[in-house]
Amino acid sequence: MSWTVVVADDDPDIRTLVGIAAAKAGLEVLASVGDGEAALQAIRQHRPDLAILDISMPERTGLDVVREARADDSLGDLRIVLLSASVDDVSQEAGLGSGADYFMTKPFSPRELAAFLSVGKEAR
Amino acid sequence: MSALRKRVLRALDAPSPALKQSATALAVIASAVLVLVVPDLGFTNPPAAIAGLVIVGIACALALLMYRGGPALLRLELLIPIIDLFGIGAFRFGTGGTQSLFAALIILPVVWLASAPGRRHILYAWAGTSLALSMPWLLTWSVPQTAPEWLRLIVTPTIFAIAGAIVNELARLSRTAVDDATRLAADKERMLQRTVEYAAQLQDSEAKYRAADRMFRGVWAAVTEQSVIGTDVTGLIDLWNPGATKLLGLTEDEADDKLHIFDFHDPDELEAHARELNYPPGETVLNPGFSALVESARLGEAEVREWTYIRPDGTRIPVELSVTKRVDEEGRTRGYLFVATDITKAKEVARLKDEFVGLISHELRTPLSSILGYLELMRDDEDQPLSAEQLQYLGVAERNANRLLRLVGDLLFTAQVESGKFALDNRELGLASIVSASIETGRPLANAAGVDLALELPPQRVAVFGDPVRLGQAVDNLISNAIKFTPRGGSVTVSLFERDGKAVVEVRDTGLGIAASELDKLFSRFFRATTATRNAVPGVGLGLTITKAIVIAHHGEMAVESEEGVGTCFSMSLPLVVSAVPVS
Question: Which of A73, B290, B335, B522 is the most exposed place for a label (fewest CB within 10 A)?
Answer without folding.
Answer: A73
